Amino acid sequence: MSRRGALRRLAGACILACALAGGAAAAETAHRFAFTSIEEKPLPLEWFKGKALLVVNTASLCGYTPQYAGLQKLWERYRGRGLVVLGVPSNDFGGQEPGTNQEVKQFCEVNYRVTFPLASKQAVSGVGAHPFYRWAAERLGPEAAPRWNFHKYLVGPDGELRGWFPAATAPEDPRLARAIEAALPGRNP
What we know:
Blueprint: H1 3-27, E1 34-36, E2 42-44, E3 52-58, H2 67-78, E4 83-89, H3 101-112, H4 131-140, E5 152-155, E6 161-165, H5 174-183
């Protein structure tokens, strides 16, 4: 075989390998990621297969902190229909979550009577971000990456990202409610 033929074959093999790798990456879902709970126990997202999942990076000392109350209401309203709200405390923005996991948990329970699951504190932005957050930003584009506390990602029952909502989107916002309704199990994507 000529050198030119060998290079063509190699290039073809590279194109095929890249296409297959891209297909594999495209097939990844949120269910392949795991957090650690605020109680330091495993919290794999695969546990939520078949449910809609609202992942929210949170902070206790933020102007948006009262959104905890609205998130709790969403959890109470929709959990029987298949929604899980997952709070992910983060100190990434303004140092507004300086406490320990135990302090965050106590703050949420005492001040907002939070009963939805909370992850342990995580980085949600930059190169040190939790893999779920890096994946979500890659899938939805850099404009969808968290820029402040209380950024929201909506994941469908199939593990696919259904959208994102910036920090200023209150849990009571009708657009968020419509997106949740559409993402609940048994709905069309």
